[in-house]
Design goal:
single chain, five-stranded antiparallel beta sheet, two-stranded antiparallel ribbon, 471 residues, 15 helices, alpha+beta
Length: 471
């Protein structure tokens, strides 16, 4: 079934804690991601046995259940953390020996739970399943969801909920926060050992560089900026960009307070725990740079044996971060209006459009979809005289509509549609969830039979809607 190889467990024991999952009294399959099972070359010979493994009731051959230690800056403040409700089964090797972490989210308390119950609600796990698969189908690097299984346990939050476990798949769960943990609570030798491990696993190409640590930081920074630029291009708001939620593999993960923006406004925020707007849509570029700087600080002792030289190298990297972000963002965004090479004229054209979108509160996704398909989607007005003038100037630049069709989604996980589907799922009606999941599996394909799913929510919903971390 699985082919486990646990390289992480060869590291010092302070990096993890061996665990046992909480007993799931009556596990029941809710969703199995058959396509992902196939991609990972995991054969479903016995579904009943598989479900036992995916709730932790049975240990698969080669599996050593464990949770990872890490720290992180949460809303700017350093905190000791760790997998408080996640237990790793191990690292599965696919057919071509690619390595993937297989993690059970909601499997019960661990050493790092900090008085929490370690459980997860069915609604929050279905939400992560839906959002992670939607981001993946948009072509953005992401964790994947292999399964959601009810446990039979009650979960007490604001009310009593059905408990569930999500099986999360990632290239690695190593985070900036993992490095922060080792820098604060480990030794220089442990930091070096862990960095070597991470480079071998995720960035082997940098080993041939004259300064592999410098190359590692630069490549990691580049991938992170490209990732956040991709989020911005589809209107995605992560909602909790703490350093413990920034994967060294540059995959999107932790889908608790995330949401998609409807009416365009850079200050848009939905997370209930983000009262200051630190992680708003428009602040995401600043935050990813801030997070990368925290990573560079951790890596200072490895950049160069001489402290002065290490600081010099670090500052040189930091000074380039803003320009690298500007490049990644500009290229990603001008593609949305049909250009694969940037010029000041094209950037000005984009900025004019964004100003109009903000001024008239046009729907972010539907504005670009309307331009792409010459079809007036909901919450966008082709009759607007300023838009007409803009379109005349834009068309003179000869935009590539084929490029736009590859870049601009038609369907996104609209917040109200997600909530409707999840609320029905809590009543054991999974049809709306399955339908929404199916529509989101082809986000760039205009299917007029599903135009209803392109409508933004009404104003009352938008003003009141909040997302939560799910714990």
């Amino acid at each position: 079934m699985f082919r486990f190889d646990n390289s992480y467990l060869q590291l010092p024991e302070k990096f993890f804690s061996k665990e046992m999952a909480e007993k799931a009294p009556t596990p029941k399959e809710v969703f199995l991601n058959y396509d992902l099972f196939t991609e990972l070359n995991i054969h479903l010979d016995d579904t009943k046995e598989l479900i036992k493994i995916l709730v932790g009731n049975k240990v698969h051959s080669g599996s050593v259940l464990h949770s990872q230690a890490y720290a992180g800056h949460q809303f700017g403040h350093f905190t000791m953390l760790g997998d408080g409700r996640a237990i790793h089964l191990g690292e599965h090797l696919s057919k071509n020996s690619e390595r993937f972490d297989i993690q059970l989210k909601g499997a019960g308390p661990t050493k790092f739970s900090r008085r929490g119950d370690g459980r997860a609600t069915l609604k929050s796990m279905l939400r992560e399943y839906l959002m992670s698969e939607a981001i993946h189908k948009l072509g953005i690097p992401s964790s994947r969801s292999l399964a959601v299984i009810k446990t039979g346990n009650d979960v007490y939050r604001e009310t009593v909920h059905d408990g569930a476990i999500l099986t999360r798949v990632m290239k690695s769960h190593i985070r900036i926060g993992t490095f922060e943990y080792i820098r604060h609570f480990g030794t220089f030798d442990e930091l070096k050992q862990f960095t070597d491990y991470t480079i071998n696993r995720l960035y082997p190409d940098v080993k041939n560089s004259s300064n592999p640590i410098e190359a590692f930081i630069q490549e990691f920074s580049s991938r992170q900026m490209k990732l956040v630029a991709q989020w911005m291009s589809v209107g995605f708001i992560h909602g909790v960009m703490n350093t413990d939620n920034v994967a060294i593999s540059a995959e999107t993960f932790d889908y608790g307070p995330c949401a998609f923006m409807n009416a365009y406004h850079p200050e848009t925020v939905f997370s209930s725990i983000d009262s200051t707007g630190r992680y708003s849509f428009g602040n995401q570029p600043k935050i990813i740079i801030w997070n990368i700087v925290r990573f560079i600080e951790v890596m200072l002792p490895l950049l160069d044996p001489k402290k002065e030289k290490a600081i010099e190298l670090a500052n040189a990297i930091i000074e380039t971060l803003q320009s690298h972000w500007n490049e990644a963002y500009a290229l990603g965004m001008i593609q949305k209006i049909g250009f694969d090479k940037k010029s000041q004229e094209k950037i000005d054209c984009l900025n004019e459009l964004l100003s109009l979108m903000q001024k008239y509160q046009w729907d972010y996704t539907n504005t670009f979809a309307s331009l792409t398909h010459d079809f007036e989607f909901p919450a966008v007005s082709f009759d607007n005289p300023e838009l007409k003038l803009w379109k005349e100037r834009w068309k003179k630049l000869a935009p590539d509509k084929n490029l736009m069709r590859r870049i601009n989604p038609v369907f996104i996980p609209r917040n109200h549609r997600v909530e409707e589907a999840l609320n029905e799922a809590e009543k054991d009606n999974y049809a709306p969830f399955s339908k929404l999941l199916s529509i989101l599996s082809n986000p760039y394909q205009l299917d007029k039979d599903f135009i209803e799913f392109t409508k933004p929510p009404n104003e009352n919903f938008e003003q009141c809607y909040q997302t939560f971390c799910g714990t």
